[in-house]
Give the backbone structure.
Amino acid sequence: MSLSVNKSYSLIAHRGLPTEFPENTLSGIEAALQAGADSVEVDIQFSRDGIPVLYHDENMQRLSGIDRSILDLTFSELQQHSVTLNNEAAQISAPIPALKELVTLISNWPHCHFFLELKRQSVERFGAEFCVENILKIIQPVASSCIPI
């Protein structure tokens, strides 16, 4: 998939390229950027031990097949699970990435923007100050490319 026309618009990839890759995964985000996206929106939840990860839902059933809250598992426990896309062609799985892994990816795409959506459930569990401070600390090297929403 590739887009090339006279660009007088911005193409924002919502959770990466979720029709072809599991959502909010590094492989999906990179594929969206390679396909021509100018920006990518990702969702941030926190693990039980306070590590920000890219994940949309609080309950992991839809994306990972387990009926647990992402907020109740440590980052180490989350690494034992993956995000899965079930489409007509195949079943594709990818690791649940930490926000710091996205920062590494962002540094390779300096002209792109990243919209970071902090999910309400994490704010309710950990508090806004904790969440925002931790996110800002991690994204500091690429802060000019990140837009909180």
